[in-house]
Amino acid sequence: MDRYVNLPTTHLRSWVPGSIAIASLFVGLAAGCGPEDVGPAPIVQDSAGVEFVRHGPLADYNRPVYPAEYLLTIGDMEGPPEMLFAEVAGVELLDDGTVAVLDRAAADVRVYSPDGSFIRRISRRGSGPGEISGDLTVAMVGIGDGRLLLPDAINQTVSIFGRDGGLLESHPWDIMQAYMPEWRAASDSTLAVHLWSATAPWHVLAHRSVSGALLDTLAVYAVRPRYNPVDRRFPVWADMLVWSTREPDAVVAGWMSDPWVTLFRRGVPVRRISWDRDEALLTEEQQEILLGIVARNMDPSEIPPDLRTMVRLPERLPAVADIEAGEELILAQRARSVETLDQRVTYVNRGPSGFGGPCWDVFTFEGDYLGVLDLGAPADVFDIRGDTILGVREDSLGVQQPFLARLPAELREPR
Predict the structure, then answer these.
(1) How far apart are CA 345 and CA 351, in angstroms?
(2) Which of 34, 381, 3 is CA-nearest to residue 202?
């Protein structure tokens, strides 16, 4: 079992997601995600106050596949520049129904009406007041009253913009950009953030104020080193910690390499949900594909002939590409196939990561396995507000489209 460290908690803030009313467009099933039936029950054990819910291979459960109901997608390859996205790093639904999208490549935030029409741009590339670096603007968080918070690792600031796009506040903040950073709104004045430092041995999930003050700790994980001093090779990709949180005191976290997630409450692990991996070992041909991805990230004139001896190729794909938590549900995203991976898998501090596929396995907080949520295309989910999913998906050409989608009715109903 991984080492957990329990740090003292202080006060916690609560957050209640608003309801969203918008007409939906039904999306059909994507082939190959799974049949509909019932299957075995998990094994439940308890050890030192931590409940272990152990599933077998999820394919054995024959649970249904639930297609997402898309409400809105934004983006058009044939449209004007404001409808083209290169590196979406955040999608927010504001209290007036408008949708904000952070595009790192363009170094701006664009705001759209509820029907997807462009309204305005917020911020621009730079290092002055109200400007962002773009490349290392690590997130975008809605914090109530139409305000947007943008943390920037190059500028080392957190900037807060008002509903009209004007700069309201700017706070210095020592922002470390590593692994897959995520920032969440816990309340109008509190954030849930992932804190990590190259010099510290811990990943800390914590509450902080919007000005940077540490309030309390939600979970702590020991760092897993990337470099192996024995074989002196670096892995093709890092074993990243992925997480999500639901207020007032719950956070769900796990490692991409392992088929399990852990639920923490008030900084203490209370339940681990695990399942048996059924993915096959990677073939030599698939490992060669990964080696080619590494090579394409290097200057062709400088690719060493002994590249294979410098990097450690994985035996398997990650067990989990991402984790998201709704009000009552935990979603674990499946990885893409090797053949559909691209150069993003070697950039551990940029997103979307390139690992995520269209299908997400769905569990309750109690550990019951409900089935598969199918988003119909590879997609990153930034948050789940009530029954509404905020994210970005990719079409068959890899073009990014920010979206709002609704959890299927079968997953919204009380259980």
Answers:
(1) 9
(2) 3
- Rounded CA separation 149/102 (Å): 11
CATH number at residue 124: 2.120.10.30
Residue 307 lies in a domain: no
- Residue 310 falls within a domain, yes or no? no
Extract the runs of DSSP E, i.e. beta strands, from 56-189: 65-67, 69-73, 88-93, 99-103, 108-112, 118-122, 141-142, 148-152, 157-161, 167-172, 183-185
**Closest by Cα among 142, 150, 188, 148 to 164:** 148
Report yes or no on whether pTM surpasses 0.90.
no
Place of tokens 């041995």: 201
CA 107 to chain centre: 20
Question: Which band of pLDDT confidence, cut at 50, 70 and 90, is reported for residue 7?
Answer: very low
**What is the residue range of 237's domain?**
28-279+316-412
The answer to the question of residue 161 being in a domain is: yes
Tell me if 181 sits within 8 A of 139, measured CB to CB: yes
In a domain, 5, yes or no: no
Number of domains in the chain: 1
